[in-house]
């Protein structure tokens, strides 16, 4: 095996402690949550910017983001459903909610049609379309970019009528326009951070989620009537704590009948505990808010928010402690925006260059494929989160996230039969998704887990 030769020349000089290895066992019979994938967005004009980039640069960035062999292998994209008048599919109010709408379609959707087609060409099958707001005229305040509620939802009456059915029709029409372009949106959301007051497209719901509860059945029935194969999400709250509260209200109101995914962001609080629901939970937007955290290629220095190691820990906590089924970063590709770390690939010199956060994702997203299940692990290393997954092709992925300052040694029982092959990759300050050596025994492999690193193991049965 190639790794053996590398070890001989000392390419991978790991400090292995003299203590004996800790036994790690994977129980592939204990299926935990399903994994739907990993993703990002190119919303708010970033898809157009991507499309307008020089073709060679564009190709390199697409390969970095979507290629399953050499790149991150992202498998979910999140598009925004624009509500701004210039971009909306229903820019003009029909006057009353009960009047016939006048839809319009430019076939471009701010570059998102091009972007979605690119993603699909790499095998992406999960396309999440999410509305930040209803068009302004459907809201109590008459403006899509200031706080207001959907007219007709519980507690909100408007002189122009009850717009719930019109909003559901509008969302479904957006999905139909994509169908017209040969693209199947698979997941549909109608809120973005409804607990936050922004200076852009937004729509509020109350802490009790009463507005969502009074709209979701209408959306569900409309989707059903149109025979669309769509999964519905709610509510993309600003943080996990808020979404936990919304979820309690949604479940108490029986919304699990209509919804398929509970979705949340992580800005005001991280995903650190499971929500009280049987529905899969997705972290649909994550990023680094502060402008003092620029785009960086530094993996680990002092644990700052823009470092890859910080995100490695967030991913591990999210999948293990919160039971996430998907994790989406905010944006993928941007050009010369290195004042911010809320995107994964940038062009600072000639070529697209990944941030260290990109590598944190890649250690998961390239190896754990959509449809995988998380499975149980026994054995624990200090300061290490160990997560294991079985893919639909039966390969088993084990990920060690060591946020401690000392190296650990794991003896991982081969879960897929003695004839299985094993491969190990390392990301730390000196390596980026680097295939590395390990010691093979008859029924286990011994793997070093350096300080502040992620180690991904793949077992493939023959
Ligand atoms: C529909 O909207 C388009 C512009 O988006 C406009 O040109 C057209 O006249 C409208 N049709 C009606 C019936 O209002
Ligand atoms: C969630 O609900 C609890 C109980 O009503 C409340 O104390 C808490 O402040 C809420 N948290 C958020 C983030 O809204
Ligand atoms: C952004 O990138 C440019 C060019 O590489 C560099 O000169 C500048 O210092 C970077 N800015 C930040 C905030 O990292
Ligand atoms: C690792 O070292 C850093 C810097 O000295 C320290 O802040 C951190 O708490 C240490 N981590 C652990 C898990 O001990």
How do you describe this structure in short?
With 462 residues, the protein is α/β, with parallel strands linked by helices. The protein is built from 10 helices and 20 strands.
Structure characterization notes:
This protein has 462 residues and is of the alpha/beta class. It has two domains: 2-32 and 375-460, Golgi alpha-mannosidase II (Immunoglobulin-like), CATH 2.60.40.1180; 37-370, Glycosidases (TIM Barrel). It has helices at 2-8, 46-52, 55-66, 112-121, 164-180, 210-213, 216-225, 240-252, 308-320, 356-365; strands spanning 22-34, 37-41, 76-81, 126-131, 187-189, 231-237, 261-265, 281-285, 326-333, 343-347, 352-354, 373-378, 384-390, 396-402, 408-413, 421-428, 431-436, 439-440, 444-449, 453-460. It has a ten-stranded mixed β-sheet with strand order 17-16-20-14-13-12-1-15-19-18. A hairpin with a 4-residue loop joins strand 10 (343-347) and strand 11. The longest helix is centred in the middle third of the chain and has 17 residues, at 164-180. It is globular, with a radius of gyration of 23 Å. The chain starts with a helix and ends with a strand. Residues 1-13 have low confidence and may be disordered. The structure holds 2-acetamido-2-deoxy-beta-D-glucopyranose (NAG) (4 copies).
């Amino acid at each position: 095996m190639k790794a053996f030769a590398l070890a001989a020349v000392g390419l991978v000089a790991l400090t292995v402690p003299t203590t004996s290895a800790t036994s790690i066992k994977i129980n592939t019979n204990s299926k935990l949550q399903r994994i739907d994938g990993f993703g990002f967005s190119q919303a708010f004009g970033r898809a157009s910017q991507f499309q307008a980039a020089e073709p060679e640069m564009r190709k390199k960035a697409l390969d970095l983001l979507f290629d399953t062999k050499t790149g991150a292998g992202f498998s979910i994209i999140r598009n925004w459903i624009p509500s701004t008048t210039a971009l909306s599919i229903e820019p003009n109010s029909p006057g009353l909610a009960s009047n016939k709408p006048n839809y319009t379609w430019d076939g471009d959707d701010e570059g998102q049609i091009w972007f979605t087609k690119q993603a699909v060409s790499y095998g992406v099958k999960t396309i999440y379309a999410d509305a930040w707001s209803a068009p302004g005229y459907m809201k109590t305040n008459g403006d899509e970019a200031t706080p207001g509620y959907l007219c007709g939802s519980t507690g909100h009456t408007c002189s122009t009528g009850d717009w719930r059915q019109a909003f559901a029709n509008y969302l479904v029409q957006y999905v139909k326009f994509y169908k017209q372009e040969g693209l199947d949106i698979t997941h549909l959301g109608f809120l973005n951070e409804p607990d936050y007051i922004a200076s852009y497209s937004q729509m509020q719901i109350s802490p009790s989620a009463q507005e969502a509860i009074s709209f979701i059945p209408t959306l569900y029935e409309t989707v059903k009537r149109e025979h669309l194969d769509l999964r519905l999400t709610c509510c993309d709250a600003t943080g996990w704590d808020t979404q936990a509260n919304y979820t309690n209200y949604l479940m108490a109101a029986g919304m699990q009948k209509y919804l398929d995914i509970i979705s949340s962001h992580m800005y005001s609080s991280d995903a650190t505990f499971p929500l009280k629901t049987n529905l899969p939970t997705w972290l649909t937007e994550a990023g680094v808010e502060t402008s003092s955290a620029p785009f960086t290629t530094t993996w680990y220095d002092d644990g700052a928010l823009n470092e890859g190691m910080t995100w490695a820990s967030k991913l591990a906590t999210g999948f293990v402690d919160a039971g996430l089924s998907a994790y989406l970063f905010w944006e993928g590709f941007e050009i010369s925006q290195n004042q911010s770390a809320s995107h994964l690939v940038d062009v600072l010199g000639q070529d697209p260059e990944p941030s260290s956060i990109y590598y944190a994702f890649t250690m998961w997203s390239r190896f754990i494929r959509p449809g995988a299940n998380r499975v149980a692990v026994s054995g624990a290393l200090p300061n290490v989160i160990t997560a294991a997954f079985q893919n639909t092709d039966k390969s088993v992925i084990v990920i060690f996230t060591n946020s401690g300052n000392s190296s650990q040694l794991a003896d991982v029982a081969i879960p897929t039969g003695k004839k299985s092959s094993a491969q190990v990759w390392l990301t730390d300050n000196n390596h980026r998704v680097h295939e590395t050596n390990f010691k093979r025994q008859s029924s286990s492999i011994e793997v070093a887990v350096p300080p502040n690193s992620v180690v991904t193991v793949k077992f493939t049965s023959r």
